[in-house]
Amino acid sequence: MLGLLGLGLLAGCSEKKDPMEKIKDLEFTVLSEDNIPEELKVVIEEKKDTSFKMTYQDNGFMYICVGYGEQVSGGYSIAVNALYLTENAIYADTTLLGPDPSDPAAGKKNSVSCPYIVLKTEFIDKPVVFD
Length: 131
Description:
It contains two helices and ten strands. By secondary structure, the chain is α+β, with helices and mostly antiparallel strands. Strand 3 and strand 4 form a beta hairpin. The protein is globular, with a radius of gyration of 21 Å. The chain starts with a helix and ends with a strand.
């Protein structure tokens, strides 16, 4: 009888999964402006002066978009630190990288820029968590 009770207690002590634990990395393509769907380009154009994070679905693909708003100069780039699937969501992590200090043209004043990135990946019906 005690053995059966012990088995019952062991079964009840299962480890809970972290809902943000990575299941798999997602393959993606960083799109050039020429390859962004027209409807999405219009939305980005309206939002690019301010920071934004959004998704767009079209033809079996998901487009994950991150904009960093208006910057005082050109020469910025955006690094994709992670894009992966979890049990409950897609996790997207990007970082804005400043102009290269060794490139005199990159950090020119009066050349305002609005850096953004568009990632194209397979459509998965889960929300995107931005970091």
